[in-house]
Request: fold
Amino acid sequence: MAKIRSLALRDIPGLKKMISMISNMSSADAGFGYKSYIPFPLNLINKLLPLKFKFATDSYVAIEDDKICGLITLAAQEKNPQSWRITKLFLDENGYDTGRQLVSFAIAKFGAMGANTFSVKVDENHEELLELFSKGCGFRACASEQLWKMEEFKLQNSELDKGFFRPFKDSDCEEVASIHNELIFPHFRYSLSKNSVEFENIVFSGLHKTSYFKFVIEDGSQHAIKGYFSIQTDDNENFILDVDLVSAFDNYLGDVINFAVSQIMMRRKNFNLYFLNKKYQTNGTKTEKFLEQNGFKNVKNQIVLVKDYYKRIAEDERYSKPAIAFSEITRKPAFKI
Reply:
């Protein structure tokens, strides 16, 4: 059984070597992002803080025979320290047992600190990784998401006046959260719903890795919010558009995309725009058809797997499996696992 401990600076050379070998064997882009390693003493401070005060990701390595054989990285859902995402998992060849051990360790450690939900997004074609999380670690396939890239958006006549759009304010959080949660199919809401705090603007956003531009669609005559959308980027070149529209307003999706494009072009002329389609929402199929017919290309399909802390991790029989390289997509959906 491997020994598991926090990632340290001295592990980086060995980790680079392991990931390089995995990348060569699987032809995968396994970039780890070594510059994101938190140096001492900040890593020690972050490790000791309770969940609600953690300010960075946590990474752990598995050591066996003085050799790194696996790594796992977790990040909290924005503004929700009780929900954590597995954003990276690297395992050496035949490392499924190590993978189960790392995931079990992370769930036990963070669960004991107060986390109650863990999630991971996996490419639907990565059968080995899906099997590891579902059969090996007791995660359940909860829903799916798509990423569509704008190749030639067919502009339509605007039906909504620009006066309907305004910047998002923190006072809108409750209404926006309500819209988001009501759009989710009832059987997915327990695992995928968000509370109002998760929509709050980030303090000192200029120092944050990812930039967010948030807007709402407001019906002035009714003084009611009918939609919310955010544009996010972490390199000012690749932008992801995430939209929630109430059923009566989902026919205005084209207007939202037009407005988002105009906002991006105010900041940059050359860019890539990706649309996040949440298939677990009631309008997911309608959105998919719209994107397909209006110049977008589907570039990524991901399965969302969820595990609640109180559920026992299932054990599975041992198999000889290939090496694994997984890193959550943040801004480049063409990334191959």
Observations:
- The chain is about 25% helix and 30% strand.
- Residues 70 and 98 are 7 Å apart (CA to CA).
- Residues 153-294 form a domain with the Aminopeptidase fold (CATH 3.40.630.30).
